[in-house]
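[[Encoded backbone]]
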Amino acid sequence: MAPPLPGPLAPVAPLLSHYGYWAVGVLVFVEDFGVPAPGETVLIAAGVYAGAGQLNIVTVAVIAFAAAVIGDNLGYLIGRVGGRSFVHRWGRYVFLTPKRFHAAEVFFTRHGGKIVTVARFVEGLRQANGILAGTSGMRWRRFLAFNALGAALWVGLWATLAYLAGTHVTAIYDEIGRYQLYALVALGVLAAAFVARHVLRRRRER
């Protein structure tokens, strides 16, 4: 019998109980090219189910990894083909306004590889990093390598913690969530600093 899921994991329980691995694959996939979906939540919930013997943890990890990489590559294609005009038109639906996009793009251009790797762990960046990589002109092979690394670390962390911690994983999730907030604030400050530096440099050149 599937264990009761605590707190924020509870809403995905019906999906996971009914669709199993398909729920993991689809939700992680669509989240990774900008669709607001509980991809990370379903991954953690699936890890808890695996710990209770309802799913196989290796299968969960493989499906989540493949879905994450493919989803981000679709985001990269959207950014590469659709470009800035696509993001400016549709980005507001995932809270990616033109102003936020410009700041993120400037920061991304300088630190693309590192951002692709760590973006997986930061809400907001996880959904947008493929699109940002595509619009900024990052080479696909470089993006693919860093994206696969980030996906492996992300899946490995949450699948392992959920599998071992079981229903206690929400306490761990909340604790890590605090550090995610600090990381997001730090990235925002750094992005603002790079934008300001870029504007000042342009003014001096003029």
About this structure: The two ends are 69 Å apart (CA to CA). The chain has a mean pLDDT of 76. The helical segments are 13-19, 21-31, 39-51, 57-90, 98-119, 125-135, 140-165, 169-205.
